[in-house]
Amino acid sequence: MSIKVIIADDHQLFIDGIKSILSKAIDIEIIGEANNGVEVLKLLEHGLLPEIILTDIRMPVLDGVSLTKTLTKDYPNIKVLALSMFDQTPDVIDMLDAGAKGYVTKNVEKTELISAIHTLIKGDYFFSNTIPKDIKNWFNKETASLPESDLTKREKEILQLIVKGRTSLEMANQLNLSKYTIDTHRKNIHKKLGIKSNTGLVNYALKHL
User: Fold this and answer.
1) Are 115 and 81 found together in one domain?
2) Higher per-residue confidence, 132 vs 60
3) How far from 44 is each of 32, 35, 58, 168, CA to CA, in Å?
4) Is the dihedral of CA 89, 32, 24, 17 positive or negative?
5) Do 85 and 171 lie in a common domain?
6) What is the mean pLDDT of residues 59-83?
7) Domain CATH code at residue 162
8) Alpha-carbon span 126 to 138, nearest angstrom
9) Number of domain units in the chain
């Protein structure tokens, strides 16, 4: 089956370029396009259900960060891949904290973009080659003074799934637990580690698990 994708960007020429790139992939289908976040939400309200949304960060009416926060809350099964001219750490962190599962710059190569989509579908994160160093530096700052945790075996298991980008519902199905139980574990993990953001949790896991 094809991976269904919606593209959101306020420059039509860019949308057309991405459509041209993705048309080369036989397993990716563009089912919609929008020029801002509000238009994306309207497409979803009218029944379009993509697996991936490619979104710019800076858009009028409703930007990419705000859109991603709404998608994470109301459409948790949709994975967001940020496409931006900017690769500065604050922009990347804003999108990751909002719930994005990947971040690529707009000069992305065809093969890299297709690979990013496939990576997100598998449940993993994806970053452009220019991103990891910036993210690593932010991660190190975020967790430099963290104490050793007393996470339970189950909490460590859930933390590893958070690193893979799994939603609470996906974790519940995989672990045969209720979503309420998963959410409770997640709250306990945040509290024990003293980390507020999912991005911080990802870095903690990479360093300590």
Assistant:
1) yes
2) 60
3) 10, 14, 20, 21
4) negative
5) no
6) 93
7) 1.10.10.10
8) 17
9) 2
| Block residue for tokens 């997640």 | 186
How is residue 100 written in tokens?
A: 């994005």
Cβ proximity of 30 and 53 under 8 Å: no
- φ/ψ of residue 40, rounded to 5: -60, -50
Written as six digits, the tokens of 182 are: 């998963």
- Bridge partners (DSSP) listed for residue 32: 6
Laid out side by side, the sheet with 102-105 consists of 28-34, 3-8, 52-55, 79-84, 102-105, 126-127
pTM over 0.85: no
Give residue 16's domain range: 3-139
Task: Read off the tokens for 123.
Answer: 């449940």
- Res. 163: pLDDT tops 60: yes
pLDDT higher than 50, residue 54: yes
**138-159: b or e for each residue (b if 16 or more CB lie within 10 Å)?**
bbeebbeeeeebebeeebeebb
The residue assigned the tokens 């990419």 is 64
**Nearest 5 degrees, angle CA 135-CA 63-CA 51?**
75
E-strand spans in the chain? 3-8, 28-34, 52-55, 79-84, 102-105, 126-127
